[in-house]
Amino acid sequence: MPSDPRLYPPFSPIAQRRIAPLLLIAAALLSLNAGCTAQRTTVVRSAAETYPSPEQEIEFLDALYSQNVVCNDDALHALLLFQSGTSPQTWEERLAAARALGWVPEEKVPDPHLSALTGVVAGIVCHELGIEGGLTMRMTGGPLRSPVAATKELVALRLLPRVSANQSLSGVQFMTLLRRAELYRSSGILAVSGRPKPLPPGPAAPDAPEGDPAARRTNPQPPPANP
Fold first, then answer.
1. How many CB atoms within 10 Å of residue 145?
2. pLDDT tens-digit profile of 95-119?
3. Can you give the residue ranges of every domain in the chain?
4. CA-angle at 164, arms to 109 and 71, nearest 5°
5. Is 129:141 a contact under the CB 8 Å cutoff?
6. Chain CA centroid to CA 114, Å
7. 166, 120 in Cβ contact below 8 A?
8. CA gap 51, 61 in Å, rounded
9. Are 82 and 128 in contact (CB under 8 A)?
10. Model pTM greater than 0.85?
């Protein structure tokens, strides 16, 4: 049934003049919000540029840990160190090494100082750990071509916090990801199944060695029986 136009009278000229500025403000806020969602951070100088040599690896990792956002250059440098223990000293060489490993397609030329996307990092980590993921990841060509699926996989495995593939990672989040990825790689869990079980919420405390006073406190021995 058509609506009676008398029930919805048009705004008066005075009301229109009052509402028009509000509509303009609302449109501006929506545009600003959309721009912030797509905007990425650019760093002036990467930690890899400041500490490029193998002798400065500790300084690089310390600097990376304190970064508010991880850029592409630092991400590649750290991921290459994770993959093989070595990384070239220039961005051009690091990019060439990443292309040789299949991490970065030939047609893409990433900005070294632009913030790295979580989905790209997650795809590389899944690829290096041999995590095949679910049907979506396999049908789309594997983790390197499925940033969203790779991110969800690492979130499910508790290697990543609840983040989206289009977000950036802080230095703390990035280093935590690599540490937990190394735990997966060294634990042998991935050799059993292509879809490993999630890590527990926290690492288990190591067993105390024999003769350690802590072991005697946590596992006291019964007193000897009287003869």
1. 13
2. 999 999 999 999 899 999 999 999 9
3. 47-189
4. 40
5. no
6. 15
7. no
8. 9
9. yes
10. no
